[in-house]
């Protein structure tokens, strides 16, 4: 009978080996999922470990493997903005779940100021984590360039401050998503299609704005003066929608670069007495599960799944940790359009 909670001594690897009737080396290989252990021996060892309440000494194991079992998720944005952003919140949840699924502990880091930058780099190069998943969307952000000198693998979610070569990136097809949105509006007979663009210091909203413009031109429609930049917030979307209505009261559709801004746009349109979608059709980007379907009317939105992105990032990181010789690449994930009553 194995030691119970409260016993003074924890079971050792030798105890597990003796309980299973195998050598210490066989027990060690079985617990480390070594291929050179028979299925029968592995089953005996795992059963013995469960019965004895044995757990390996992670600190001792890390001395041998030089692995910590931890992965950093770095978000290079102001903390207040991150916690108010439903997409980044979804990324954090996805990071925790996806890393847990591969037996890794998530270490969450917010990096905003210059002081944060130096602290982040020192922490990452200090041997505390095995790798990093980094979200640094701003093109002027110095963090991605600083991280290129690290000896741990790094995978970026979205474009790495405009760095296109020598980095591992998992991103969504932002330009293609904007094309889906605008083609949908054109097919519905809309001809004055405005856009509320996201901050133009970030690659994703730049690509979404480019997709909107190119699709209008391909349809023979004039995009001149029909774009308004905002900051991915509800209030920013409301203010931008008001500006567009003042300039172009005859607009009959708007493509909004995020669900959160679209919520603000809907409020402005409602206050202006515009019916959705009869007077103005609205299509947004993100398809956040807590926002898009819950709006009145429910939002048509370009669907991108944060967990799909983080899953691909973790998969890439695991390949890098296994030293599979993976060359840096831009992995672009497809998007789709979830059509609802707003368009």
Series of H and E elements: HHHHEHHEHEHEEHEHEHEHEEHEE
- Poorly predicted runs are 1-8, 58-65
Please state the second-level CATH architecture of the largest domain.
3-Layer(aba) Sandwich
What is the fold named in CATH at topology level of the largest domain?
Rossmann fold
CATH superfamily of the largest domain: Response regulator
Lateral strand order in the biggest sheet: 2-1-3-4-5-11
InterPro entries: HTH_LacI, LacI/GalR-like_sensor, Lambda_DNA-bd_dom_sf, Peripla_BP_I
Protein name: Transcriptional regulator, LacI family
Domain HTH lacI-type: 11-65
Keywords: DNA-binding, Transcription, Transcription regulation
In short:
This protein has 343 residues and is α/β, with parallel strands linked by helices.
Descriptive overview:
- The chain has 343 residues and is α/β, with parallel strands linked by helices.
- It has three domains: 13-56, 434 Repressor (Amino-terminal Domain), CATH 1.10.260.40; 70-172 and 307-334, Response regulator (Rossmann fold, 3-Layer(aba) Sandwich), CATH 3.40.50; 174-303, 3-Layer(aba) Sandwich (Rossmann fold), CATH 3.40.50.2300.
- Helix content is 43%, strand content 16%.
- It has 13 helices and twelve strands.
- The protein has helices at residues 13-20, 24-31, 39-52, 58-65, 79-84, 86-101, 114-124, 143-147, 174-187, 203-218, 234-247, 259-271, 306-321; strands at residues 70-75, 105-110, 131-135, 154-157, 168-172, 193-197, 227-229, 253-256, 281-286, 300-303, 330-333, 336-338.
- The strands form two sheets. It has a six-stranded parallel beta sheet with strand order 2-1-3-4-5-11, sandwiched between helices. Strands 7-6-8-9-10-12 form a six-stranded mixed beta sheet, sandwiched between helices.
- α6 crosses α13 (306-321), α9 (174-187) runs parallel beside α10 (203-218) and α11 (234-247) packs across α12 (259-271).
- The radius of gyration is 25 Å and the shape is elongated.
- The chain starts with 12 loop residues before the first helix and ends in a 5-residue tail after the last strand.
- The model is unreliable at 1-8 and 58-65 (pLDDT under 50).
């Amino acid at each position: 009978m194995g030691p119970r909670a409260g016993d003074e001594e924890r079971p050792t690897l030798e105890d597990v080996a003796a309980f299973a009737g195998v050598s210490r080396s066989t027990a060690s290989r079985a617990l480390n999922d070594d291929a050179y252990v028979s299925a029968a021996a592995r089953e005996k060892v795992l059963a013995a470990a469960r019965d004895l309440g044995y757990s390996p000494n992670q600190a001792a194991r890390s001395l041998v493997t030089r692995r910590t079992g931890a992965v950093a998720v770095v978000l290079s944005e102001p903390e207040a903005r991150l916690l108010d952003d439903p997409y980044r919140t979804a990324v954090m949840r996805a990071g925790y779940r996806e890393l847990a699924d591969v037996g890794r502990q998530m270490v969450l880091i917010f990096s905003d100021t210059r002081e944060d930058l130096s602290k982040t780099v020192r922490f990452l190069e200090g041997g505390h984590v095995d790798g990093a998943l980094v979200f640094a969307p701003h093109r002027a952000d110095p963090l991605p360039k600083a991280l290129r000198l690290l000896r741990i693998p790094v995978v970026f979610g979205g474009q790495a401050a405009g760095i296109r070569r020598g980095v591992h990136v998992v991103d969504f097809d932002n330009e293609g998503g904007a094309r889906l949105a605008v083609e949908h509006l054109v097919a519905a007979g809309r001809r004055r299609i405005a856009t509320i663009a996201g901050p133009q210091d970030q690659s994703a909203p730049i690509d979404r704005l480019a997709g909107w413009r190119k699709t209008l031109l391909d349809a023979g429609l004039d995009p001149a003066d029909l774009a308004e930049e905002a900051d991915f917030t509800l209030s920013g979307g409301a203010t931008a929608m008001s500006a567009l209505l003042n300039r172009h009261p005859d607009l009959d559709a708007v493509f909004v670069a995020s669900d959160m801004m679209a919520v603000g746009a809907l409020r402005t349109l409602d206050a202006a007495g515009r019916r959705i979608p009869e007077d103005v059709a609205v299509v947004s980007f993100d398809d956040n599960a807590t926002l898009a379907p819950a709006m009145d009317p429910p939002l048509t939105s370009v669907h991108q799944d944060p967990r799909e992105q983080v899953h691909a990032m973790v998969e890439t990181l695991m390949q890098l940790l296994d030293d599979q010789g993976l060359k840096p690449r831009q992995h672009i994930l497809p998007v789709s359009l979830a059509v609802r009553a707003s368009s």
